[in-house]
Amino acid sequence: MEQNIFELIISGFINSLSPYHIFLMAFGVTAGIIVGTLPGLTATMAVALLVPVTFIMEPASGLVMLGAIWCGAIYGGANAAILLNIPGTPSSIATTMDGYPMTKNGEADKALLTSLISSVIGGIIGVIILLTLFAPLAQVSLKFGKPEYFWLCIFGLTTISAMSTGNVVKGLLGGLFGLLLGTIGLDPIAGVPRFTFGYRPLVQGIQLVPALIGFFAFSQMLTLMERDEKYIARYKQTSSLLKSLLSEMLQKGKSVLLRSSILGTFIGMLPGAGGPVASIIAYNEAKRWDKNPEKYGKGAIEGLMASESSNNAVIGGALIPMMGLGIPGCPAAAVIMGGLLAHGIIPGSKLLVESGDVAYTFITSLIIANLIMLPVGYFMLKLVANILNVPLYFVAPVILVLSSIGAYALHNSMLDVFVMVIFGTIAYILSKAGIDPGPMALGMVLGPIAEDALGVSLVIAQAKGSILQTLFLRPVSLILIILSILSAFSPLILDYLKKKKIFESEVKRNDSSCC
Amino acid sequence: MRLGRKSILSASFLLIVLMILVTGCGQSNTPAPEKKSEVNYPERPINMIVPYDPGGGSDMLTRMLDKHAKEQFGNNFTFVYKPGAGGAIGASDIAKEKTDGYSIGTVNIPNYLLQSISGSGDFDVDSFDYICQTASDPQILITPKGSNYTTVEEFVQAAKENPKKLTVGVPGALGDGHVATLMLMEKAGIEVSIVPLKGGSDLLSAILGKHVDAGMANIGVVISEKDNFNILGVTFDRRHDFVPDVPTFKEKGYDVQSFVGRIYVAPKGLAPEVLQKLETGLKNIWDKKEYQDDMKNAKFSTDWKTGAEVKEFVTNYYTEAKELIEKYNK
Amino acid sequence: MTHRVVNIFLSVGMFVLCAVFLYQTNKLSYPSNVFPYILIIGIAILSLMVFLQNIFSKAEVIEKLEKINYKRVISIVAISFLYISSISAIGFYAVTSIYLMVMCVSLQSHETSIRMAMKIRNSFILTIIVVIIVYIVFNILLKVPTPRGFLI
């Protein structure tokens, strides 16, 4: 059997290296980057848009193209996040936290290139893990029941204390506000509408993507336009950046890249969690393990690397339960699975026996697609960076129009466009009161997952007779609870330790000066 | 006529302002000229409203019909996706469309009926004209590998001994699996704890990970993993092709009949000739071997019902489901 | 306005929000009501903290907020609302062109070195280019639907 899999991998590589497939991948990556860069058009949408096209292709070719689009779109989201502080896809929320400050510091080139290289590395690590370990890992993902999901979300929410640099109370307030917005719509347990205030279209809830565009794009444009600044940031192209950047990344960020990619793959393989959760948690972990956590949020290259490598590693991760169990790990994987089914290929435990050649061509092509992304992305980032040289009075209105299209395109619904403008305005006002959009977005991302997980856990607890047993006393839950507590309080503890250290060193210095 | 021009201009300006005021943010539903001849129908492409995301099951099924739409209806369908609230948003939109036959859509039995009961959709059984059903997907009661319950008898027995202690996962609150479980509870006189999960994949992972005692799943969604769980019974009027050796609940003495039906509907009030043309056209496509093969490949089981049959089924189902939900959900 | 006033406004606003959601949550049954209750209690406690902190605060929080150009912000929000409300009635491309023109010209108001005619000309060129690119990218290449209205 081992021999067989090895042969499949080799033939997969050969298949995906055919000129036709290379062409499809180049096309897919380019289209993906464009869609990803545009605010509101998500990776899922990019893939869904092209599924009908693949119906007329060979199964392998169609999949190769879809995979390339997916990689491109997840990476593309970083461009808008870095240049404009607008996450192009929800997966790049964490990218804004250090990417945009870098642009403000005049390092847009460096930030864009860092995100490209990190994405490629993260993507490849994710696929390698998928290629080598998907059968056992798929079984591991099953160990995650709803109680574990709930604690994973709580763990994700503790990021708020790391995110809100100035005022933790306000950060938490923003996070809870986002969580509350996420409860509008259908009750996941009872199945009936609530918090709709009698307005029926709200049954679908406040959609994440339009709210995100509002939080970031609309409020960001308001802030910029109000300030009479002519440009978003100073920008000068830096020449021969690649070499120095590569050595800087290797020197500073080997462990960040590796850890974030593994985290991304792992979170990606938990169905329902996905890119936004992965990048936020990876960002938080990068900050926690760093010796100088205070540089994060001010343009730390490590933060950018963590976010971007983890969200591209999610692709490999999301395919693990799909290939192994027939359970897609995230919405984009679900769309790809739909494409597979349309070709009569059934993902799941029998995939390798029944259509191993197509499956391995698809998986190996993801590695090639990531490599192709390097030159394509490099060319495109040179193009998009020029937006910084356009005066703001031209950029801002165009961004607002693009945001409206993005909000509308999600569900073909004007309501979403209104949501974008209303929540953009709210976010602008709240930012004046010291509440940043970051925690709010985090709350909206995690809220629905957390609520569903808590509700289901409580139903099971009711049947089994013990909340303690169901929700708390499970090995993975306990680990996550401990991690959450550590994560929530570690900034405080570190702070305390640092003060103590400074104090001690000062005492020492005083001592030595005495002598 | 000099003056006239000016007044026309100002009148049209006023009209535009009025329209903005009247339509607001909603959709501009300009009243349609209804007197179009039904004889030449269809003269232009038909809008097909899919209340789900592109790439999903409903989209794929309809795309397979669309492959042959040109020869039947002169044009391919124009796909309009209206996802949101599990299909309730799109279904509301279909019900509000013009009744000229150029806007039809696909909904799933029984989900849109249940949305109407739960209050998440502002439509009911009578908001639609029914064209046909092309495929159906019954539920199966499954338990994880290694479970003590491998037959319907064992399951019912255990549930009787431990009322409300067994957890049964369903693919969504107030969805088809939920109601099928309620039907089983009613017919077998048992009570179980229903665990509403997020869709078929979520249910599958809960079963494979043994997080619930049993699950009421749609065959199509979980069939590829059928070696990794036990199948107890199927909620159909006959044994199902995918699992021919699994008994129906009816055989076991509990008449539980529930399935997801992929149906095509139009807003209420279509001209009978137009409705008939749509049904005939879709039936012609359905009969094609290529279509049947496509469906088989994608693991959809074809099951034709005429518009009249669909209407009769949904009317009965609606009454039964409403009673059950009111009884068990307080 | 000082930070103190803003913070007090914020906490009061959050209290109102809590009250509104609390009213609806009371109608829900277990276990659907657990999650909303947790959130409402959390927001209420945090708002109370902000409120008390600012009522009894010392000078540090009373410093002035940076100056906001209210007129500008309000007019941008108002124009944007007008824009999106008229899309479905009049038509996406028509309204978008007007919106882009109006926004570009008015945002240049502080650019005293550029003549009005130039401003209008540049904005016009930009509008045309953007509308054409949007049409090509969204409607032709990506086939993403743009909002539709009375005129295209």
Describe this structure in words.
The complex is a heterotrimer of chains A (515), B (330) and C (152). Chain A is mainly α and 515 residues long. In chain A, 77% of the residues lie in helices and 1% in strands. A two-stranded antiparallel sheet of chain A has the order 1-2. In chain A, α4 packs antiparallel against α14. Chain A is globular and about 60 Å long. By secondary structure, chain B is of the alpha/beta class. Chain B folds into 2 domains: 45-136 and 260-328, D-Maltodextrin-Binding Protein, domain 2, CATH 3.40.190.150; 137-259, Periplasmic binding protein-like II (D-Maltodextrin-Binding Protein, domain 2, 3-Layer(aba) Sandwich). Chain B has helices at 2-23, 57-66, 69-73, 88-96, 111-118, 152-161, 176-188, 199-208, 219-222, 272-287, 289-297, 307-328; strands at residues 47-50, 78-81, 103-109, 128-144, 167-170, 193-196, 214-218, 229-234, 259-267, 302-306. In chain B, strands 1, 2, 3, 4, 5, 6, 7, 8, 9 and 10 form a 10-stranded mixed beta sheet that branches. In chain B, β5, α7 and β6 form a beta-alpha-beta unit. In chain B, α7 (176-188) crosses α12. Chain C has 152 residues and is mostly helical. Chain C is built from 5 helices and no strands. At the A-B interface, α3, β1, α14, α17 and α18 of A face α2, α4, β6 and α8 of B.
